[in-house]
Amino acid sequence: MNFGYEANLEVDGDWKIVKEEAETIQKIYRLFLNGEFKNFNQFVKVVNEQGYLFKGKEWLYGNVRSLFKNKIYIGIRDYKDKEELISAPVPHLRIIDQNTWEQAQIKMQQYTRESIEEEEPMFFLLKDLIECFECEKKIKGKKIKRLGVKIGVYQCDNCNSVKYGKEILEQEVINHANKFFNDILSPMFKEFLSRVVDEQASIHKKLEQGLDKVKAR
Questions:
Q1: Per-residue pLDDT reduced to its tens digit, 45-56
Q2: The model scores a pTM over 0.90
């Protein structure tokens, strides 16, 4: 359930606003619109420095970004009907007014463009190729931030303890693959090379014999 809401026990499937969390959301919007930030990460840092809490914890990038992307905060809730996504007005769940939302969307575009320009794609060589040794599910490649630096890891979504550094794991696999193919291909290549040399020698010999016959005439 999104931050700012809780289940409405009086109406099945409905939500209601949590007043304290709604006030936090409104303060974060005001902070965003009234301030200038180098990037969205800096804004998230400022949110935490202001002492605003996300369910008793510090805000993460994705949590803050969701406040500006999810239309539930302007009273529009998305439902899934089988495979179809349906948007329905829920005015009693509105926390942010339309004008504030639109101003925030315009400002968010600036940070979205910066993210696209600054973000370097990370290629995961073993994507969808390795499984968790505990639950046997596919291990995904993902980017994480460690000491302020983004690094790649392979991590199981089910077993948090199963995590491998991208560079180390990929290099290890490459080393084993090289050895494997060298062991297989070396004898085959030697045999192929020997066959090519023999064929070339045979062709060369036939040419020499042909030239000798021409000279003899």
A1: 999 999 999 999
A2: no
